[in-house]
Amino acid sequence: MTDYQMFILPAPLQLESGATLPQVQIAYQTYGTLNAARDNVVWVCHALTANADVLSWWPGLFGNNCYFDPANHFIVCANILGSCYGSSGPLTPTDSQERLYHNFPLLTVRDMVAAHEALRQHLGIGHIHTLIGGSLGGQQALEWAIQRPTVFEHLVVLATNAQHSPWGIAFNEAQRLAIFADPTYQSATPTGGQFGLKAARAIALLSYRSYEAYGNTQHEPEENKITDFRASSYQQYQGDKLVARFNAYTYVALSRAMDSHNVGRGRGGVPAALGQIRARTLVLSITSDVLFPPSEQQLLARHIPGAIYAEMDSGYGHDGFLIETAQITQFLESFYVQKLAQKCALSVSQPLGANMLASGSSART
Q1: Residues 5, 1, 117, CA angle at the centre, nearest 5°?
Q2: Does the annotation count 17 as an active-site position?
Q3: Which superkingdom heads the taxonomic lineage of this protein's source (predicted)?
Q4: 273-313 pLDDT per residue, tens
């Protein structure tokens, strides 16, 4: 495992639920060098089962000779609160050296952002050139950009939404039911709930990929086959992969946090909350995403002042935000052209329809 840097919050963290975490540690990683002007910071918010090592899970977008190159940018990625890659989570020993397992308190996306903000202040970073995240990472990025509108110059969100949908919550609940059905989950041991976690991952994959993706990669060349299908083996394989690197208690905690996401809570609704964002914003959707469909990103672009909206044609479904790095790079290159940004500012109050997708204020592959 990567040797992460560690930050311990100087005070207990009051959670949105009312519970308190008495001591919080955050694992994070930095790449590159902060320049003299301190204006080259790129902060990455990661998705559900990722970690602080962004170069390992977003290759092609982050890394040497990629768009976000450590030679030019100071890249920061922090493992989210509740995760199992170094930050405080269900398997982190408490002061009494006990692990909380399924008694770990309810987290929200806002709690994750509170930890990010504490780390930002600890690092002495006053200005962030670009805040970027997809899926749950995009939810964090939106929440943070609303809370601290003057900190971020640019905001890039991919395959995400302003409020987690009933569809998304239902998928998460189905996965949690699979975990709870595993009797070992109640054992409160590091390996508890592993069989349920494997089933949960198989359920999740159906929302991460698409009909087309499964058809292209898991098609059976043998017409007479009646069992042992490639698609079945693939689900088993992906479930085993997650079990080898994750745990059921963390999965439950983080999926519940994702369900909590609603930027409009306590702010007069979603449009009012999104209207507080001051960063120049690029919103990217994926045509085949069934978990976060394009309509959710179109809503973001309608209500974030001056936002640019773009769609990526991809057969990979939701996972396209991790895979289609060549397309993402093209959109980023256009986004950072000042002239395009000026054009985009003219369309703040216009609804996103088919005519907008073809206009100079948005892009589509």
Answers
A1: 35
A2: no
A3: Bacteria
A4: 999 999 999 999 999 999 999 999 999 999 999 999 999 99
